[in-house]
Design a protein that fits this description.
The complex is a heterodimer. Chain A is built from no helices and twelve strands. Chain A is an all-beta fold. In chain A, strands 2, 5, 6, 10, 11 and 12 form a six-stranded mixed β-sheet that branches. A four-stranded antiparallel β-sheet of chain A has the order 3-9-8-7, with no helix packed on it. Chain A is globular and about 40 Å long. Classes of the chains: A mainly beta, B mainly beta. The interface between A and B is medium-sized, with 25 and 33 residues.
């Protein structure tokens, strides 16, 4: 079955440390890939997206993600985390060639940042 | 400012009642979506609409109904048939169903609690 997996439910890092959030998918063809961020009680904001081309994608707030076809992964990274990055992060996919809004989401990773 | 407005932010429902969640967008988007969010489960698609006067069931449509009489509005009714309606509900929209280089924009959500 097609699915999106975020293996880490909760990650804690210190402010200024680097961050990597994992995302794996199981689709036959390369899907369109997204990372969203959600602050408590709020909607989702798009951080970045990958449709095609360069496999290293730059997003807002200093985030980047790398698409690795061989590993079916789209991991999110940030070199230096700020306290304001504490939130829940969702990886999402859309099967190639279909709607760009009919997203399938991973379970989410909650990020806690220690001062 | 363009965006998606969901109301109310908090909603309480008694057992056996139907309630309607409002979603309005002024982005001139054709496609609109309703997602349900439960802790640790990511977001799950309830209903989606590709264009006005059209809508389709998503992955968890049982106990819910929608209408799309106007392009800017996509209300969701949670009926008494929904056995576990307490959740956070998110409305989203995208430019079209199959546009390229687009993304889903989200509202701020409605938290529904059964009392």
């Amino acid at each position: 079955a097609q699915s999106v997996t975020q293996p880490d439910i909760h990650i804690t890092v210190s402010e200024g440390a680097s961050l990597e959030l994992r995302c794996n998918y199981s689709y036959g063809a390369t899907p369109y890939l997204f990372w969203y961020v959600q602050s408590p009680g709020q909607g989702l904001q798009l951080l970045l997206k990958y449709f095609s081309g360069d496999t290293l994608v730059q997003g807002i707030k200093g985030f980047e993600a790398e698409f690795k076809r061989s590993q079916s992964s789209f991991n999110l990274r940030k070199p230096s985390v700020h306290w304001s990055d504490a939130a829940e992060y969702f990886c999402a996919v859309v099967p190639g060639g279909t709607s760009y809004g009919k997203l399938t989401f991973g379970q989410g990773t909650i990020l806690t940042v220690h001062p | 400012d363009g965006g998606i407005t969901q109301s109310p932010k908090y909603l309480f429902r008694k057992e056996g009642q139907n309630v309607t969640l409002s979603c309005e967008q002024n982005l001139n988007h054709d496609a609109m979506y309703w997602y349900r969010q439960d802790p640790g489960q990511g977001l799950r698609l309830i209903y989606y609409s590709q264009i006005v006067n059209d809508f389709q069931k998503g992955d968890i449509a049982e106990g819910y109904s929608v209408s799309r009489e106007k392009k800017e509005s996509f209300p969701l009714t949670v009926t008494s048939a929904q056995k576990n309606p307490t959740a956070f509900y998110l409305c989203a929209s995208s430019i079209t169903w199959t546009a390229s280089n687009t993304e889903a924009f989200f509202g701020q959500g409605t938290r529904l609690t059964v009392v």
